[in-house]
Specification:
There is one protein chain. The model is unreliable at 301-305 (pLDDT under 50). This protein has 14 helices and no strands. It has helices at 13-27, 37-64, 84-91, 95-126, 132-141, 151-160, 167-192, 195-203, 208-219, 221-236, 240-245, 254-260, 269-289, 291-300.
């Protein structure tokens, strides 16, 4: 039962105006707002770059799943998928053995580099001692030395310590050549943290190492993740030193064995791409796990103040 118009409560004037506008707006068709031209161009460029980056990876995976006689003459997507290449590298090449060697060498190197980089970066950033500028300059100057230039001196030094042909020598080499960049990066991160945190920790009775471990290191997580990702990529994919310093095939990491699959006249491309696919899995996992901290570390390096 509806009330007569005279008995209905009268709405305030402002409320009636809002109701009228809402009813008029609901009757209109929603207009599609075109995005700005620069946004369309930006997304187009980024999409093109993403496709160009994904295509080699996609080709590698598809090639590892196709028969060997259709690598360059067959369709882009093979009609028949086969896992013979993975069976070959897993059984005949024994790829898992070299995979474990790479995991061991990369893991130990990563621990050494992270420990030395965080401690060294904090020392150069927060501890004022005599000769710190000279020491830091000498350390950073090693970054300008190409790998081929130090190969012979490194070989002589490792031979003197009887470390030629051992995984320990390779680990020490990787660690020594990577610490300088890690110290440089971690020094930048520690310098951006407020100095008041260190002073407050010292007022509470904490020493330098406790301040570093309890206060500063947790705040430098993005920097640690950045060093970790770059170090894993560098160590895992290194080839020159691994081939030159370790001749025992059972002790070699994964990359020399992948390189041995490339023949002078013929190459088993499905086997090569299958081995490369297996070798890429740890890199993808490491980046996915540390992705947010890595991006935060790159952003922190671009922000001042």
């Amino acid at each position: 039962m509806s009330l007569p118009a005279e008995a209905r409560p009268a709405l305030p004037r402002t409320r009636r105006a809002d109701v009228t506008k809402a009813s008029q707006a609901s009757g209109r068709k929603t207009r599609f707002r075109r995005p700005p031209l620069w946004l369309v161009v930006a997304y187009g460029v980024l999409g093109t770059i993403a496709i160009l980056c994904v295509l080699p990876l996609l080709w590698m995976v598809l090639t590892s799943l196709r028969p060997g006689n259709t690598v360059f003459g067959g369709p882009v997507i093979p009609k028949h998928f086969t896992f013979q290449a993975y069976e070959f590298v897993w059984t005949k090449l024994d790829i898992f053995h070299y995979f474990l060697n790479s995991v061991y060498i990369t893991g130990v190197t990563l621990v050494i580099v992270l420990a030395a980089s965080t401690l060294g970066g904090y020392g150069f950033a927060r501890l004022n001692f005599r000769g710190s500028g000279v020491m830091f300059g000498a350390l950073i100057s090693t970054l300008f030395l190409p790998s081929a230039a130090i190969l012979i001196p490194i070989f002589v030094e490792l031979k003197f310590f009887h470390l030629i042909g051992t995984q320990t020598g390779l680990i020490l080499l990787y660690s020594g050549t990577s610490v300088a960049f890690g110290v440089l990066l971690m020094r930048i991160f520690f310098e951006r943290l407020p100095r008041e945190l260190v002073e407050a920790a010292h007022m509470d009775g904490a020493g330098d190492f406790r301040t570093f471990w309890r206060v500063m290191l947790p705040l430098a997580g993005p920097g640690v993740a950045t060093v970790a990702i770059l170090q894993v990529l560098t160590t895992w994919n290194e080839l020159l030193f691994a081939v030159s310093l370790i001749q025992n095939q059972n002790l070699q990491p994964m990359q020399p064995e992948l390189y041995s699959l490339v023949g002078q006249y013929t190459t088993n491309w499905p086997a090569v791409t299958a081995a490369l696919t297996i070798a890429s899995i740890p890199m993808i996992i490491v980046y996915v796990v540390l992705q947010r901290r890595f991006v935060a570390g790159l952003a922190a390096g671009a922000v001042s103040g």
